[in-house]
Design goal:
Blueprint: E1 9-13, E2 16-21, E3 24-29, H1 31-42, H2 46-56, H3 60-69, H4 76-87, H5 90-98, H6 100-112, H7 116-126, H8 130-134, H9 137-149, H10 152-164, H11 166-170, H12 173-185
Antiparallel strand pairs: 1-2, 2-3
Helix pairs in contact: 2-3, 2-4, 2-5, 3-6, 4-7, 5-6, 6-9, 9-12
Length: 188
């Protein structure tokens, strides 16, 4: 039986779902938006813990990789909901990115993301930990992958964040090599 968040209220009327929250009513037109809103309400927070544990597992990471690489049998909304489970907690996201197995899953996830809003959400959650990831061999690969696959506006956000911590990252043994790789991918 699914857990339901008692704080959420909503009703379905005349083909559109009106979802009430503290900011007023947000009309979601169409089935896809209703499904996405329902998934956020019905998804218990412990599922994010399970996904992050699988991503860091020696064998479980292959399961999550295959989910992101799947072309049939899974919708973009379902993939986005898994991504939101991964990025929900910054500490778990940092641990996954620094892990030997988790970094591979993150790179495949970044390659297969289609929704621009999801890309922005991933960048927003990674922004506070970019400097820490750049100083880690595995985390640096995730940031390099972000630079490879993100559009120019999001690349600029990453590069601005790197510029803030440039001296700190460049004087670090691993960070120095990652800075060089970043500049090669940005054609600087």
């Amino acid at each position: 039986m699914e857990e339901i968040n008692p704080l959420s209220t909503g009703f379905f009327t005349s083909g559109s779902n009106i979802w009430n929250n503290d900011y007023g009513s947000l009309p979601y037109e169409g089935y896809n938006m209703m499904e996405m809103a329902s998934m956020r309400v019905l998804t218990p927070p412990w599922r994010g813990l399970v996904v992050s544990m699988l991503m860091k597992d020696q064998f479980g990471n292959y399961l999550i990789q295959k989910i992101f690489e799947a072309k049939k049998g899974i919708t973009n909304i379902q993939i986005d909901s898994i991504i939101y489970l991964i990025i929900y907690d910054t500490h778990k996201l940092r641990d996954v990115c620094k892990n030997n197995h988790g970094t591979r899953v993150m790179q495949i996830m970044l390659e297969n993301m289609k929704c621009p809003v999801t890309k922005y959400a991933v960048l927003y959650m990674m922004k506070p930990i970019i400097d820490e990831l750049m100083k880690n061999i595995n985390g640096g690969y995730v940031i390099v992958q972000c630079v490879k696959v993100f559009p120019p506006t999001l690349k600029k956000v990453i590069l601005d964040e790197l510029a803030k911590y440039c001296v700190e990252i460049a004087t670090h043994k691993i960070g120095c090599s990652k800075i060089i790789t970043e500049t090669m991918w940005c054609n600087l």
